[in-house]
Structure formats: structure tokens, C-alpha cells
Amino acid sequence: MNPSKTALLVMDIQNGIVGNFAENPEVLIPIQDSVKAAREAEIPVIFVRVAFKEGYPEVNLNNKMFSAIKESGSMTETDWSTQIHESVAPLSGEPLVTKRRVSAFAGSDLEVLLSGLGTEELVLTGIATSGVVLSTLREAADKDFRLKVLSDACIDRDPEVHRVLVEKVFPRQADVLTASEWADSLK
């Protein structure tokens, strides 16, 4: 693996989403460890969040999930809920990509950024395994990226859905390993 052709995606690790796991903050440790390992190996770390412009012009009422967010009046670009959680805060110069749907590619400039970096391989982390990780993995595979998923650096509210995805679905399109296995492979 050529680290310069790899990027770590840290997806939806933002205040409003991490808050759903407040009773279990140790679930963030593998994500923190993967960010640290990437930085030490000089692999670009790209932060991805979901957020909307004031007034939610991107939200169609036919979209069940996002129309509910529009009605709640939260998740705008400036809201506290859409800011990256302090436990993995971006360093100066680390990109923050704002997406408008579930996949990290949807409504964002991620693909252009990855092209500019010469990225060929993506390492995926995020909340939720059944949301952003699944959607991004599928789209990235269709875009011919090599893929790795850090199984313990992905979180889902439903442990069984997480297990099925990382054990049965993701291996069809990605290498699945733990954050520590990935960190060890960089040394």
C-alpha cells in the first residue's frame, strides 16, 4: 500500500450524531486511534459531516429522513449539532466536507478533493454503519476506489445490523479489519 494514495474518511462524527452514543463514549476510541494512526503515517484525514444551508433548500419533502430534520429546525451548517466532535477535531489544513445526503459523495465536493489528492484507496470510519458507511462504500466501490472498513471504528445503533454488514456485506467490496490492525499495517 502506498500511504500517499490513501485517505481516511471520518464520517458523521459530529456533535448531534455522537450525542446518540453519549452513554458509551468509549465507542469513539477506535475512531480516535485511526485518526492518530493516519496522521502519524501522513495519510490525509478527511472529515465528512451532514449539514444543510439555512432554510433547507436542499431538502425535498419526499425524502422521509431529511424532511424530518427540516421540520426539527436543526442540522444547518452553523448549528452545534453539525460541528465535528471535539474528540476527533480536525487539525489545521485537514479538509471538512459537507454532504447533503447519506453518502459522503452526495452533494459534496469529496470526489474532486480525492482526485486532487490522487487518492486510490479509502479507509472508512463513521456513524452509522448502516447509513453513511454503507452508502459511501457502495458509491466508492462503483467509482473504483480500493476500500478498507475499520469494523470497530464504525458504529451503529443496531449491533446485529452492524455485524451483518461488516461480516457479510462489506467484505464483498472492501477489506474489513480493526483500527488496530490497520494502524499496525502502517508501521
Indicate the topology:
Elements: E1 6-11, H1 15-18, H2 29-40, E2 45-50, H3 64-72, E3 96-99, H4 110-117, E4 121-127, H5 129-142, E5 146-155, H6 159-169, E6 175-177, H7 179-185
Parallel strand pairs: 1-2, 1-4, 2-3, 4-5, 5-6
Question: Which properties best describe this structure?
Answer:
alpha/beta, 7 helices, 187 residues, Rossmann fold
Summarize the structure.
The chain is α/β, with parallel strands linked by helices and 187 residues long. Helix content is 35%, strand content 19%. It has a single domain (3-185), classed as Rossmann fold (3-Layer(aba) Sandwich), CATH 3.40.50.850.
Termini separation? 12 Å
Number of domains: 1
Q: Examine the coordinates and then state which fold CATH places here, giving the name of the CATH topology.
A: Rossmann fold
CATH architecture: 3-Layer(aba) Sandwich
CATH level-four homologous superfamily name = Isochorismatase-like
> Rounded to an integer, what's the Rg over CA atoms?
16 Å
Stretches with pLDDT under 50, minimum 5 residues:
none
Strand content: 15-25%
Instruction: Return the CATH class.
Output: Alpha Beta
The general outline is: globular
Q: Count helical runs.
A: 7
Oligomer description: single chain
**Rounded average pLDDT:** 94
Main beta-sheet annotation = 6 strands, parallel
Helix content: 25-40%
- Helix and strand content put the structural class at alpha/beta
Could you give the order of strands across the largest sheet? 3-2-1-4-5-6
Secondary-structure element sequence? EHHEHEHEHEHEH
Number of strands: 6
Organism: Falsibacillus pallidus
Keywords: Hydrolase
Protein name: Nicotinamidase-related amidase
GO molecular function, one term: hydrolase activity
